[in-house]
Amino acid sequence: MRVYYDFASTLCYVAxxxxxNIEEEIAELxxxxxxxxxxxxxAAPWGRGDSFREEIRNSVRETGRxxxxxxxxPDPWLDSRPASVVALHTDSPSAEARWRKEVFGSIxxxxxxxxxxxxxxxxxxxxxxxxxxxxxxxFESVEDSTREAFALGVTGVPTILLDNWLFGGVYDGESMLxxxxxxxxxxxxxxxxxxN
Length: 196
Description:
Elements: E1 2-5, H1 10-21, H2 23-28, E2 34-37, H3 54-66, H4 81-89, H5 93-109, H6 117-127, H7 135-151, E3 159-162, E4 165-168, H8 173-190
Parallel strand pairs: 1-2
Antiparallel strand pairs: 1-3, 3-4
């Protein structure tokens, strides 16, 4: 199962929290999570540095609260590309998960809108590069990931891809598990061992 997300998106942070809380149950279903960052501004009607009206901010805040996650939208919309470069270059799911947790925590829990020296050091440990050192080359990987997602029909984030089935938005853990349980049962009946 692939999860397309943007580090700048508050709803993606909420999805990260919800899915993190049910990781063990997801694994028990034989479902593998693959998190893939994209740059939503490549198709969104807003750009990096744009601000949002208070009613939009309130709507996002209430969605998070309804799912047990307190989060405020950063203002303005952040440039998520440097963090995404690192995520795309990690060599294992555990390294990617560690990076995603630290970046989301920095942005949404510690209210730090840019990569801190601590995060830059972690990036060097995880992938051996400074994500800000060669932005032009590094950002190509984010653009490629984004174009791939758009070609598959992704129009917003978070979006979950289960084989050829896309569904967007963020839901409570029980709803997510219900969908994944049903899908994993269908896969078992068809003789496939894991949900991609």
